[in-house]
## 1
Amino acid sequence: MSIVAFKFPWSRKDVHGDDPYWDFFINTPPTDLTNTVTELIRNAPAGNIFPTLADIHTPEIMAHHLKEMAQYFGAELVGIAQLETNNTHNPDGYPFAVLCAVRAEYDPRVSPGIGGQVPVQNGLFITFVLSAWIRELGFRASVAPHLGAETLAAQAGLGTLNAEGRLVTPQFGAKVYIADAICTDLPLAADG
């Protein structure tokens, strides 16, 4: 009786290296943006803030609950940064920014195809639903694409910035995507 060794195709490092369809999926931007969900989520209006504040726990417990909720929605790393309240980049005076990160096999900045944009789509979903949850608690929350999420993620202790200004984490190295920051007045305990 001879033993046959099984070879799994997904165990190779680069299983798609010579596949032109995969290359197109990762690197070719869609000709029609309605073929993606990113524009749909980006352009969706934020909901109303519930008029009655929810009874919440201490800022430390609330931060823990918020991180668990973000992970439930798909975030792999979550951090909270303290914001300067009298800053031109923060005209609404939000005290906190919530940063959510997902693993990114391909860098969305250099992989504009539908497949390369999956981390962006995941990040948009997480921040949209998480900010809606915060508003349902009666607190302000808005997604802020202009805040420099990678710098805030480093401030929140998710990793460090490399020479190019990219976040590098202990868990994923540079293969990570930081979604747009959620600015909020929900009482939280900042990290970092």
## 2
Amino acid sequence: MSAIPFTDLAAMAQEVWPSIEADYMACLLHADFVGGPPVETFERDWAEYCGASHSVGVGNGTDAIELSLTALGIGAGDEVIVPANTFIGTAAAVVRAGATPRFADVSDETLLITPKTMAAAVTPRTRAVIAVHLYGQMADMDGLTAAAADHGIVVVEDAAQAHGATWAGRPAGSFGAAACFSFYPGKNLGAFGDAGAVVTSDSDLADRVRALANHGRLSGSAHYEHVYVGRNSRMDALQAIALSGKLARNPAWNERRQILASRYREQLIGTSVRLVDTDPRAEHVYHLLVARVADRDRVQAELRDHGVQTGVHYPVPCHRQPPLREFATAPMPVTDQAAAEIISLPMFPHMTADQVDVVCDALAEITATRTDREVRYVA
């Protein structure tokens, strides 16, 4: 039996390469590597895709969050609410911006931050909440934006796993004061290396982010005139070319992920495997297909023996990471429970229906009770 990979980045690269080869090679041969027309074209198209007015290409998704917070004037003495169930980069960006992460627990159904868990984390020092759209599903943006407005705090979207996802028909990137995207190769829309973007409909905020990401230079100013203490976090032209080619395919690739996810759900009915729920108001684009199982480490090991590669996103929650423990001020029972159960199953647009069936059959066998197994073997 052939191994079933967790993802297949090579297949996506091979599909897109014919459409970008000429532009990619021209960029290489002309040695025009940073910024320029390829980046400007992608920024324009990405902003439109996200239903926003501006997009600023940056070095990666973590930089996108830090730059957004800094451009919003959030820093020392301020608190930013972050769901405990997210990649460490979300919380690390808050710390790097000089602010304090304030952790919030998540929904037991979707494993996303909710208006209720957000409100429980608000203090007089809270300036913002980062709504993390995890696994490919957007958080409750109607409830979060309303709750944030009630508390007078800013909403920033961490949409690093939600390229093309929607909430009540509106795309990720169209709700917050700023939205932050990662184009790490494994994302639904992935570059050929690191890249990211900040999306916003606030032109002044976009200008500040662009300046901060380019050593503090304002657009159009002299090369050695700097109005901020900025940093170097710019998108490469080669990455923009790859992303433009993939952006044309992203809707079809997302649709394929949704079809595969539906097959997983159908095949796993009647098993003890619990897939993370999808809110009916959300269009999930399944960056990750996450399940919850008892005895996760054993299940993962036995799937490996069956030739099925899996991942865990994330086994150590943010509030339990050593450099962030000082910010853990309240229990996170849902996050802690989920961290011991979650397993990410193979999911990529070039996956076949037969591969899904193999994964589900293996899961059903591995997670069956001993009595169920004995009956099956006797039969």
## 3
Amino acid sequence: MDDATMLAELQPTAERLVDRHLGMAKEWFPHDLVEWRPPPAVGSAEAAEPLPDGVASALFVNVLTEDNLPYYFASIDDLFGRDGAWGYWTRRWTAEEGRHSIVLRDYLIMSGHIDPVTLERARMAQVTGGVSPEAASIADAFAYLALQELATRIAHHNTGKALPDAEGYTVMKRVAADENLHYLFYRDLVSAALEIDPSGMIEAIKRQVLGFEMPGTGILGFAQHAKAIARAGIYDLGVHHDAILRPVVLGHWDVAGRQGLTPSAEAARDRLVQFITRLGRASARVKRSRAGTIVEA
């Protein structure tokens, strides 16, 4: 199914999901979540205790990803168009994501967890670079955005749990709650798209699962930050398999049970299921290895 036809077919679903989102979304204000006080100088006696590498990396990547919002907006705006429910959703999503950037930066500056000069230089480099994922089709965009929003929600939530202060936990919990609503919007768009074009969506889901990367490409030192985040257990192979691929791709979307597929989509589905199965085995080996390390220590 071509993009224009899919958008037209899913217009009523988009309208319903936008209305549902507005009914569940809560108004909140960054200044209510972060206490304003003179920010501590990095390295001073008043500065916060240094965070573990993985937690600091997660905060660094989280806020810079949100800062890159103009490019994500441009990509989605080009795909969805500016009319009707599709255009309204893109603008509403952009407004909500922009608030995340505000509150995360407020928290980081006030807490002293990250040097603001380093953060600002990284922001300049990230936004000047303008790197963002580009979906080949509407089907690919729906699949990627559902996976990405859920991954972001999980990463934010786990980062909050790893922070040593209640303020940081509250900020990350609030941002994660928004990301969960964004995930639900895209998850259910994919479900609806699977009903009208199962073969096309299965192939798109396969492409996005096999090629999935967390947002952050273009961030200075992203590969090192990603490894630190994984070592900290905030987002790693096991989290990706256990919290996203198994419950959503195999569970909610039931890709293994889809009927009436084209031969190409059948092959894509088989490849997808095999990939998730192998990933599950690999994540289990990593968990056993970590457990063994803990026992030996």
